[in-house]
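Sharing a chain and its predicted structure for anyone who wants a worked example. Both blocks are below, sequence first, tokens second.
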Amino acid sequence: MSINRRFIIAGLGASWLAGCATNPGAVANTPPRATATPSDLLPQRDAGYDAWVAGFRGRATGQGITPATFDAAFRSGGFLPGVVSRDRNQTEFRRTLEDYLAIATSDERITKGRAAYARHAPVLNAIEARYGVSRYIVTAIWGLESFYGERQGDIPVIAATSTLAYEGRRGAFFEAQTLAALRILQAGDITPARMTGSWAGAMGHTQFIPTTFAQFAVDFTGDGRRDIWADDPSDALASAANYLARSGWQTGTSWGREDPNGALEPQPGGPRFTTTANFRAIKRYNNSDSYAIGVGHLADRIAGGGPLQMPFPPDRFGLTKPQRIALQNGLTRRGFDTQGADGVIGANTTRAIEGFQRSQGLPVTGDPSPALLRLVS
């Protein structure tokens, strides 16, 4: 496949997951609070967009989309300015592997993963039997993609992808996504009201974009629909397994392992890994070493394995993860809430540091340091 499944969403591996502590729609350490949909993600009238839709209608019907399908899909939609602004202002987050794993394999994600695996063990076993893909790997992908179904996104897919097609920066790509989404509706897999996802059109438990759905989604339940949005995640989990199976997954082989002599060292001075062809299959799902290690290690933890054994070095500020956690706890005790203590220095911790520095008459840098740790301890 020439275009990575998650190409459109700023690389939802190292870059996306890295920003999740401050990105409420992404994977994060704690479930986001329920909030109203931002006003810029509500449909608005836009003359240019309306003209684009009128032109697209002819192109879509010329490729087999019925007028009834098209009109039903666009009836309650509209231009979403917030989708455009998010697309234009994506930040390229760069986290260390240590920070990535602190989020991807947090205690909460492991605990929820084991519970989700236990609830769905029969279907996961059946999926493994059919596709040959480890049931633990499938569960881990589910956990990283949508927090086991809790964060699938609630933005209408047709509105999101058509807005981005009209906006034009990647117009041809998103027009193809919109056309694929219309075909999904025409096939009866989902209704327009239920076809929701991320601001960039990633859908369901497994966060498939529409063209990936067309290639890999399966009807595992046999009800005639490929429903990756349903409360029953069977179709979505089987679709993820089908994706990996068709991406070169080798049955009976692990993804890899931590190995002091391994060739893969994603973070200088940190753990090393030996990987297999299955590691490369996971990277077809998302082309990131950190993502693939996150999936593999989360799968191992869900299966009962322990944490990594090799330590990570101090960060660029001279702090180890336990020291960063102590700093976050110290700031929170002093009234500068970091919204949790996971050792990841994200926007919440930076704001807390700035607030503390300001209160003490210190230079306001927002940067952690051993000296700051001593002050708050």
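Comments welcome. The longest helix spans residues 171-187.
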